[in-house]
Amino acid sequence: MRGGWMGAAGTMGGLTRTYGLRRHFQKGGLEGPPPEISQAILKRILRYFKPYWRLWLVVFVCIAAAAGINVLPPFCTRYIIDLAVAGDGSQIWLYAAAIVGLALGSGLIGVLQQSLTARAGQGLLFDVRNELFCHLQEMGLHFYTSTRSGEIVSRLNNDVNAVQRVATGTLTMIASNLATLVATSIALLSMNWRLALLAVTVVPLFYLPSAIVGRVRRRLSAETQESQAVLLGFMNERLHVSGALLTQIFGQARADARTFQQQSSVVRDLNVKQQVVGRWLFMVLSIFSAAGPALVYWYGGLQVVRGDLTIGQLVAFVALLTLLYRPLVQLATVYVDVQASFAVFERIFEYLDMQPDVRDGEQPRACRLTKGHIVFDNVAFAYPAPIALSQRKDEKKGQQDGRNGQDDVPATPAEAFALRDVSFEIAPGERVALVGPSGAGKTTITYLVPRFYDPNEGRILLDGCDLRDVRLDDLRHHVAMVTQETFLFHATVRENLLYANPSASQQQLEAACRAANIHDFIIGLPEGYETIVGERGFRLSGGEKQRISIARAVLKDPRILILDEATSNLDATSEYLIQEAMEKLLQGRTSLIIAHRLSTILSSDRIVVLDKGRVVELGRHEDLLTRSGLYATLFEQQFSKVLDSANAEPPPGGDGRGE
Ligand code: ATP
User: Fold this and answer.
1) Residues β-bridged to residue 459
2) What is the pLDDT of residues 134-159, one digit of tens each?
C-alpha cells in the first residue's frame, strides 16, 4: 500500500481602497474573462447576508447619517467667514463649536458603524467557513487524491477571508460613497448650481489615468500573487519535517537558501513596482483634483467681485467639492471590485457544489448491529480519473441524473480497472489474508469495504445487504483500519486515542493501550497520556505509532477490521509487541488483512491471491501451496529463507488456525 491513505486609506481616487479583492480576483486563476454577475449568484450571495439583515440596516443608516453630517462643516465655515468679513464676531464661536460637535457626532457614528460591520462581516465569515469545512469533510478519497492539500486549505482560509472582506469592504465602500455623493451633490446644488455644473466638468479627467494605471496595477498584482505563491510553496516544503530532513541529509541548505533569496527578491521587486505605480497615479489625480477647485475659484471669484456670491460661500463650495471627487473616483472602479467579490464567492460555491462520490442513498438502511459477513460479488472497480475543478461542474450534472454520477460516465477502458471480477466471501469472525504482487489491487479491495469508493460493477454485501444501501455512518462505525502508516494528529496521546471513541473513560483508554502493548511506554513519557506526539506523530518510533493505532482500533471495538501489515523491518521486541497486540485485536472480528508476515498468512482462515486486479487463487495455505501457482511462487520468494531457519520450530505467532 502506498503511503498516505490513511485603505481604507481613503486617499484620492480610491487607489488603495480595494481591500485586496482585486488582487484576489486576479489570483484566483482569473486570467480568463471576469465572471458574469448573474442573478442566480447574486441571490445565492444574498442568502449569506440575510441572517444579518438587521445589522446591515443599522449600518446603512449610520452611513447615511455620517454622510449627512460630513457635508455640514463647510456650511459652518461659510458662516464663520461671512460673519468675520461682515465684522460680526458675536456668533463665530457657535459655528466653531458646531464644527467640533459635528466631528464628534460623525466619529461616534463611525465607531458604531465599524463595530456593527465587523460583527456582520465576521458572522458571515463564520457561516461560510463552517459550511465549507463540513462540506469538505464529506468529500471522499477521490477528491483528496485529486486535489492538492495546499489548494484546499487556501480556499478555506484565503477565499473565505476574502469573502468577509467583500462584506465589510466593498459593500460599505459602495454604500458610503453613494451616500456621500448624494449628500454632497444636494449641498453643492443648493449652494450654487452654476458653480456645481462647472466643477463636475473635470470629473472625466479622473477616469482615464485611473483606468490606465488600474490595468498596470492589476497585472503587477497578479504577478506578485503568483510569485508569492511560488515562495509559499517553497517555504511549505522546506520548513516541513520531511522536507527539513531531506534538506539536511542531502546538504542542500545553502542551495535552498539561494533559491529562496532569488524567489524572495522577485516578490520584493514586484511589490516596490506596485507601490511606485500607485504613487504616480496619485500624483496625476492630485493635479486633476486641483483643477476643479481652481476652476471654481476662478469663476466663483468673479461672482464674488460682482457681488453674486460671498467669500464664505466660495470657500465652503470648494470644501464640499473635495468631498465630491473622492466617492466619484472610487465608484468609477467599483465594477472591478464587485466582479472581484463575485469571483471569490464563485470559488467558494465551486467547492460547495461538489458532490461527494460516496454518500447515502435516498433511504439508507440503518445497521446498528452486524454479524460482519462480507461478500464481494463480481466486483469491478476503476479509480476515477483525477479531475480539474472546472470539470467537476459537469460531473455534478451527471450525478443529478445517475447514481453517484457513475451511470453517465463513459465506458472505462479495460486496462483502467484496478479490480475485475472479484468474488469472495468473508464469514462472520473469519480472518482473510490478501496476498499478491505490488499493484495487484490489495489496498483497493480494503478501500471498498468502508466505501471510500463504490464499485463500478458488481456488489459488496454486508450481512446480505448492498453496502450502497447501508447508512454510511453505520457502516463506518463497524469498520476500523490499521494501516502501515499511522497518522496521528499534532495533539496529546489521549486526544489521538479518543478520536476513535470520544466517550471512552480513562480505564477504557488504559485497557486498550495495555491490549496494544503501549501503556507502559505511554506512562513512561514525560507527561504520560498528556504528551504531545508532534506533527504527524514524528516524536514516536514507527513501532510505537503502530501500537497507538492498534489501541485506537481496540477503543473503537469494530466488528470488521482491516489491517495493512507493515512491511518495514522492526526489531524483534517491537515486532513481538505488535504481533501480540494485533493478535488480541483480531480475536473474534471479521478481518481482512494485507498480509506480509508469515505468521499472519499461516493463521488466516482463507487466503485471497490477487494478480492484476483479479482473484487468481483462493483457499487455505496448504491447498494453495500444493497448487504450485502464484501463491506458491510468492511464498517461496518471500518466506523460503525464514522457513529454512525455522524448520525445527513451529512458526511464531501462529495460533494453529488455518494450519
Ligand atoms: P502494494 O502492495 O504495492 O501496496 P496493492 O496490491 O495494494 O499494491 P493497489 O494500491 O490496490 O495495489 O493498486 C492497484 C492499482 O490501482 C495499481 O495499478 C495502482 O497504480 C492503482 N491505483 C492505486 N491508487 C490509485 C488512485 N488513487 N488513483 C488511480 N489509480 C490508483
Assistant:
1) 377
2) 998 888 888 888 776 667 777 787 77
Give, using CA atoms, the residue closest to atom 18 of ligand 1.
439
* Count of Cβ atoms closer than 10 Å to residue 652 Cβ: 15
Nearest CA to 348 among 31, 48, 138, 148?
48
pLDDT tens per residue across span 551-598: 888 888 889 999 887 665 566 676 777 777 777 778 888 999 998 877
Instruction: Compute CA distances 426 → 82, 292, 460, 624, whole Å.
Output: 99, 86, 11, 18
CB distance 647 to ligand 1 below 6 Å: no
Nearest atom of ligand 1 to the alpha carbon of 386:
28
Is 383 close to ligand 1, i.e. is its CB under 6 Å away? yes
Ligand 1 contact, 140 CB (< 6 A):
no
Residues whose CB is less than 8 angstroms from the CB of residue 123 and which lie 6 or more positions away in sequence, other chains included: 51, 52, 55
Phi and psi angles of residue 599, each rounded to the nearest 5 degrees, phi first:
-60, -40
Q: Is the shortest distance between the CB of 145 and ligand 1 below 6 Å?
A: yes
Closest ligand 1 atom to 145 CA: 27
At 644, the amino acid letter reads: D
Q: Residue 104 Cα, ligand 1 centroid: separation in angstroms?
A: 69
Q: Is 352 exposed, middle or buried (0-12, 13-18, 19+ CB in 10 A)?
A: middle
The model's pTM? 0.73
> Cβ neighbours of residue 559 under 8 Å, at least 6 residues apart?
370, 371, 372, 478, 479, 589, 590
